[in-house]
């Protein structure tokens, strides 16, 4: 992996000076084509050994590019707001929009490599491999969403690094560059090399490759990075739009046993009488109120997802939840059309940005599951894209639960007849008419397709730590109490 | 101020039950009209004494409204990311967009009132009045930008508050509501009353009034708040679009002494020879590098504003600055057309959201001054709106400098002839052609109007702590060195 980068590559001044003007002009052209078309986001990751000129190279590169469309992220220690969210939150937060180049010093590679280099014991390789696995999935998602991901690893051989650190320390103008960490790294050179090599090998993919740069010569590394970036930009800008692959299975389930499904097996007759409802509501709301005021609650965040048939009573149920909780710690996020900033990012971005801090609850009224429900049924995205979404959503939710968040997901199910009754009723009551639209009637015509999508969704995204709860919602009382009880029990599990 | 709210208002159950359905329906209608038209943002501030039912009332209100278009902000202790920005940053961050209702528990009133209630000594009233003054200016800006600002103060008389706290403590289901703070407040009831009364009196304005609610009776306070909100929403939604007032002075300065201006007095012949430039550049870049690596630098943020004639060399100058600094701590923010999220907020919002943390530098390539430059000259906003912007911008920058930020603003000035020469030159060099557009030629035709705007801008927004530096930029070497030196000296002043 590092052999080529220990050959002692150099570029002489004459060659460098001759190449830079044309290179710079071509880079700017490519950057402007990228910007004008808002074609895709570019992620440029910078990693490697200390003293290999990462900062200087990026500085040179940004001075050649138009710095207004480059965002350099130096992700060091996470802030408290970042610590209160899943680990990848800070990276999502820093993702460049379409048309921009985001440079990441310090990325999702930094801590895994550092930890594995410093750790001892048998489990460290296993832990590293877990991290690698997450990274590969994350980067694949980025690529599938159209991002151009380029990763540069700045390498120095052991002897060259030793010399370089000595030089830097001699000069008062560069002394600051040698941090304590640099020397610490150096002491662990061999281990660090072993860990990084494994990481690079396992995370270098066709769509998100690692490019190893020899860092000893300023002119060489600058030309190397700039030429690789230029080539990648041009290649991608010129690439023909390829058709999305056809997924191995399509949405419609074959009929095998008369279509017994998760939905058909629901007992929609479940009911609760008013007195029992009032009592149960009070009980679970009271419990929720107490739980969310518990000191231990402050260490967790709660994410509640509401999906369901139109008119299944999501709104009323959500209000029964929010009513029980101090209004200051809960936020309802309605999912409507994305804003233009949201459209310029991967589809999960707008959900990541809404994730609650610890001690806070976010209720999503519709959610990221739109991708495998309405977008699937209405054909708003290609089958390949909603097929891959199941895995991406699972990763997203694992990030949350891995951080200690409580994730609760409800499907509010009503029968087709009950829906019709409610649509008609809503058209009669003035303060409910806003709830019924043309779209609702249109969706109703696709009842079966939606049912298939729901069953797939539950089958493929329900997990022990982020389970789906199917709620029989023909009777609103039953539904509300079931939701509240489920939520309370889920919070009790962690608090 | 509080007399009416100590009369013992109550509403009986029958009246309440009779009024709620129609009220709720009307509220939803108004809310949907608001949402559909994305008409304006609504800010609903909630303050008052402990135990007066603020939380319960907001809960009731949000359960009547569609909670998907209401954002309740419980602003308690600021996070570290908030502490590293000017005080109002967290409030800007929480501002609702057009079409939404933002409820603020804990607002810009909380700390000023709390501090004045707990503080001793002579200066506390003076300090309070300073805060009040800021608040009035902030809220005026919000109103001018179209926001509907409603402020509810929940009041209880001393004897009623005492009784209420006792009741709450008795019931295990409500005991959690009585925080330590509540009892502390109570001990300071008289002082708190005095401070709040003064604050309310001075901050109650035609466009952002305080409405004092008696908090003793649940039904009364719920109806009171809901009816006031409804009335305000309807009034504003039905209000005819009024013409903007005519400001006292218009942009064009009368000629008194042959148009001697800040710009005409600049000596654009200032020059630096290449050898002197190279030496000076190295010196100031080195100094900047050292300064920004100083430990004390981490306690400050730096905001650099670049404005200037088209082709004045902003880009090249910015690169000389960013080159000297570790790429991880600097961000260049180009100001182009606002996104739709930005358009849904007051015009300063998109700059607030970019303010750097401590230890970071943000370089604005064009800035909030667009309002008093291009928007003024091109007539993109009414004279009244850019006239008021000077004051709003001064407040904005005072917020920054008050927080310890270094604010440096550069106007890069070139002569009309020099601009023409550069336009023509740019059309020749391939990697610079992207820099010259139709718009540049159009702007050039309005040279005098822009010059007037620049002189006004400097005269009205240059302050001791956020001064403008006029940079003679016909000679790029001179300009770059002057910018770097000014920036270094400004940072040295605080580090």
| CATH fold-level topology of the largest domain in chain A | Rossmann fold
CATH class of the largest domain in chain A: Alpha Beta
- Computed structural class of chain A: alpha/beta
**Most residues in contact: chain pair:** A-B, 55 and 56 residues
Question: How many extended strands of chain A?
Answer: 10
Biggest sheet record of chain A: 5 strands, parallel
Distance between the termini of chain A: 47 Å
Please, what is the oligomeric state? Answer: homodimer
Please report which band the strand proportion of chain A falls in: under 5%, 5-15%, 15-25%, 25-35%, 35-45% or over 45%.
5-15%
Q: What is the spatial order of strands in the main beta sheet of chain A?
A: 2-3-1-4-5
Low-confidence regions of chain A: none
What letter string, H or E per element, gives the SSE order of chain A?
A: HEHEHHEHHEHHHEHHEHEHHEHHEHHHEH
Query: CATH H level of the largest domain in chain A: which superfamily?
Result: P-loop containing nucleotide triphosphate hydrolases
What integer value in Å does the Rg of chain A equal? 27 Å
Number of domains of chain A: 2
Blueprint (SSEs and pairs):
2 copies of one chain form a homodimer.
Chain A: H1 13-37, E1 42-48, H2 54-64, E2 70-74, H3 80-83, H4 89-94, E3 101-105, H5 110-118, H6 123-144, E4 148-155, H7 158-170, H8 180-187, H9 189-203, E5 210-214, H10 218-238, H11 274-292, E6 302-308, H12 314-324, E7 330-334, H13 340-343, H14 349-352, E8 361-365, H15 374-377, H16 383-402, E9 406-413, H17 416-428, H18 438-445, H19 447-461, E10 468-472, H20 476-494
Parallel strand pairs in A: 1-3, 1-4, 2-3, 4-5, 6-8, 6-9, 7-8, 9-10
Helix pairs in contact in A: 1-10, 2-10, 5-6, 5-9, 6-9, 11-12, 11-20, 12-20
């Amino acid at each position: 992996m590092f052999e080529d980068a220990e050959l002692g590559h150099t570029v002489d001044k004459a060659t460098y000076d001759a190449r830079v003007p044309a290179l710079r002009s071509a880079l700017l052209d490519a950057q402007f084509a990228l910007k004008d078309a808002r074609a895709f986001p570019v992620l440029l990751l910078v990693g490697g050994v200390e003293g290999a000129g990462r900062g200087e190279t990026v500085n040179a590169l940004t001075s050649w590019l138009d710095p207004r469309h480059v965002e350099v992220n130096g992700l060091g220690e996470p802030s408290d707001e970042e610590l209160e969210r899943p680990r990848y939150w800070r990276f999502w937060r820093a993702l460049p929009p379409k048309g921009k180049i985001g440079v990441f010093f310090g990325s999702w590679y930094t801590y895994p490599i550092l930890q594995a280099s410093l750790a001892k014991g048998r489990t460290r390789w296993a832990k590293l491999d877990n991290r690698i696995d997450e990274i590969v999935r994350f980067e694949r998602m980025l690529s599938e969403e159209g991002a151009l991901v380029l990763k540069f690893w700045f390498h120095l051989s052991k002897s060259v690094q030793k010399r370089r650190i000595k030089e830097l320390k001699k000069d008062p103008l560069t002394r600051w560059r040698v941090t304590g960490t640099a020397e610490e790294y150096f002491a662990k050179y061999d281990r660090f090399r072993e860990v990084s090599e494994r990481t690079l090998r396992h995370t270098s993919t066709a769509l998100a490759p690692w490019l190893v740069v020899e860092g000893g010569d300023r002119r060489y590394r600058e030309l190397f990075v700039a030429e690789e970036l230029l080539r990648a930009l041009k290649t991608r800008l010129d690439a023909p739009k390829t058709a999305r692959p056809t997924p191995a299975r399509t949405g419609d389930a074959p009929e095998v046993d008369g279509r017994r499904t998760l939905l058909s097996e629901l007992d929609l007759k479940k009911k609760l009488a008013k007195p029992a409802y009032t009592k149960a509501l009070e009980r679970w709301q009271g419990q929720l109120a107490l739980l969310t005021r518990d000191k231990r609650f402050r260490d967790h965040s709660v994410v509640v997802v509401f999906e369901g048939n139109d008119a299944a009573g999501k709104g009323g149920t959500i209000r029964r939840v929010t009513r029980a909780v101090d209004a200051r710690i809960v936020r309802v996020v309605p999912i409507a059309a994305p804003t233009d900033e949201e459209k310029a990012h991967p589809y999960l971005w707008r959900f990541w940005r809404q994730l609650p801090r610890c001690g806070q609850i976010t209720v999503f009224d519709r959610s990221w599951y739109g991708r495998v429900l309405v977008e699937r049924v209405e054909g708003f995205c290609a089958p390949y894209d909603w097929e891959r979404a199941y895995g991406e959503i699972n990763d997203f939710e694992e990030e949350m639960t891995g951080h200690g968040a409580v994730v609760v997901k409800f499907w509010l199910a009503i029968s087709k007849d009950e829906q019709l009754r409610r649509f008609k009723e809503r058209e009669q009551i003035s303060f409910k008419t806003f709830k019924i639209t043309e779209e609702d009637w249109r969706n109703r015509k696709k009842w079966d397709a939606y049912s298939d999508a729901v069953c797939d969704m539950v089958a493929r995204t329900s997990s022990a730590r982020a389970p789906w709860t199917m709620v029989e919602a023909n009777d609103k009382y039953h539904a509300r109490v079931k939701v509240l009880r489920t939520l309370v029990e889920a919070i009790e599990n962690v608090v």
